[in-house]
């Protein structure tokens, strides 16, 4: 029997976006930083990360692969929903995708965001993007967001396997460094409905992965949550330690090696292939510290099945049913609907003064 899809008549995959060729890089970075007053000279420096890989971010191809995997997974269980794709910062732009959905007669959809944790930049900003696009598109569909899924068994299990694989390439007793994107400490302080949600969720996911690895092997090891991709002015506090500084600490302590596990990312996009596979790998090599990087979920069947199941779960909940809500760890399942005051932006625009 096919799973019920109502009240939804479509699924939307919503992601960050990235440049597809060198001439896209500066306009893309201008989109990302619009309103922050960052000069083009600084953006060109950041752009070198992209130019080092041919001026193309891997994220769009990874989303195309995820779309294909989702389509196959939906078809396997007869989940007859079209899947659309829109981005925050590059083509296909979310507003254009919303216009396409409206033209196709889509009235209500559920959105999969390629960000698994609560924070302003990882959740509320995407919801604001959806609201802005809906205001710009006549007859735009209503769109509901899936719950945060970082502590879903499908997400955690994918990292358990990839971490075990990374550790198998390292000396016995090697440490684990769980890595995520740094954010301002003030943003973490207001993340989630009760604050500190960004760090709390990452700590909980890291603990769940560690516990399963210890259950399998009977071995304990050093584990830490560390950060990458810090940006912004140096006087603004961001979450620390940086992964490179942490590698120096591990080397100084005489750790035999380290598995770098990017639990903050769903696929191997620029922050992973540059900050970890390039910069952190160079740091580890300089220090003589053996390092192996665990894979992100990407199109791992466990992750794809999880996303499909979350669509079915949310549809059932919207029909007034009581579906199972799988999760691991101590925090419980994520919430379907965010509170109005959840994850506020750090700065709100000042209203323009009226002029005579």
Task: Please characterize this protein's 3D structure.
This protein is of the alpha/beta class and 356 residues long. The longest helix is centred in the middle third of the chain and has 21 residues, at 197-217. It has 11 helices and 8 strands. Helix 1 (25-32) packs across helix 2. The chain is globular. The strands form 2 sheets. It has a 4-stranded parallel β-sheet with strand order 2-1-3-4, with helices on both faces. A 4-stranded parallel β-sheet has the order 6-5-7-8, sandwiched between helices. 43% of the residues lie in helices and 12% in strands. Mean pLDDT is 94; it is low at 348-356. The protein has 2 domains: 10-149 and 299-319, Rossmann fold (3-Layer(aba) Sandwich), CATH 3.40.50; 153-293, Rossmann fold (3-Layer(aba) Sandwich), CATH 3.40.50.1400.
Q: What are the main properties of this structure?
A:
four-stranded parallel sheet, Rossmann fold, alpha/beta, single chain, iron, Ferrochelatase_C, 12% strand, 11 helices, 2 domains
The total count of strands amounts to 8
Shape: globular
Low-confidence stretches: 348-356
Q: Output the radius of gyration.
A: 21 Å
- Count of discrete alpha- or pi-helical segments spanning 4 or more residues: 11
Question: CATH topology of the largest domain, what is it called?
Answer: Rossmann fold
Distance between the termini: 66 Å
What percent of residues adopt helix (DSSP H or I)? 40-55%
Report the mean per-residue pLDDT as an integer: 94
Tally of domains? 2
Largest sheet properties: 4 strands, parallel
In what range is the share of β-strand residues? 5-15%
């Amino acid at each position: 029997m096919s799973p019920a899809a109502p009240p939804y008549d479509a699924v939307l995959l919503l992601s960050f976006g990235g440049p597809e060729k060198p001439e896209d890089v500066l306009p893309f970075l201008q989109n990302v930083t619009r309103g922050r007053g960052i000069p083009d000279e600084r953006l060109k420096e950041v752009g070198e990360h992209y130019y080092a890989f041919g001026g193309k971010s891997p994220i769009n191809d990874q989303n195309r692969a995820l779309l294909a995997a989702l389509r196959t997974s939906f078809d396997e269980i007869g989940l007859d929903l079209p899947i659309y794709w829109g981005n925050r910062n590059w083509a296909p732009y979310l507003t254009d995708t919303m216009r396409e959905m409206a033209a196709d007669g889509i009235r209500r959809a559920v959105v999969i965001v390629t960000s698994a944790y609560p924070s302003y930049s990882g959740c509320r900003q995407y919801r604001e993007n959806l609201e802005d696009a809906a205001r710009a598109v006549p007859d735009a569909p209503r769109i509901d967001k899936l719950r945060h899924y970082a502590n879903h068994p499908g997400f955690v299990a994918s990292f358990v396997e990839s971490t075990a694989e990374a550790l198998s390439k390292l000396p016995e007793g090697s440490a684990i460094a769980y890595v995520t994107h740094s954010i301002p400490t003030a943003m973490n302080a207001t993340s989630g409905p009760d604050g500190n949600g960004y760090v709390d969720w990452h700590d909980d996911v890291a603990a769940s992965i560690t516990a399963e690895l210890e259950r399998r092997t009977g071995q304990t090891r050093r584990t830490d949550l560390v950060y990458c991709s810090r940006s912004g002015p140096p006087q603004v506090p961001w979450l620390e330690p940086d992964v490179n500084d942490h590698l120096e600490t591990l080397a100084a302590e005489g750790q035999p090696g380290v598995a770098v596990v990017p639990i903050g990312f769903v696929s191997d996009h620029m922050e992973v292939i540059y900050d970890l596979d390039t910069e952190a790998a160079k740091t580890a090599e300089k220090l003589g510290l053996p390092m192996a990087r665990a894979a992100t979920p990407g199109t791992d069947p466990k992750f794809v099945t999880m996303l499909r199941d979350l669509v079915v779960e949310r549809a059932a909940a919207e029909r007034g049913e009581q579906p199972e809500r799988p999760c691991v760890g101590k925090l419980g399942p994520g919430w379907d609907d965010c509170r109005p005051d959840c994850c506020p932006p750090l700065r709100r625009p000042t209203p323009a003064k009226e002029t005579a």
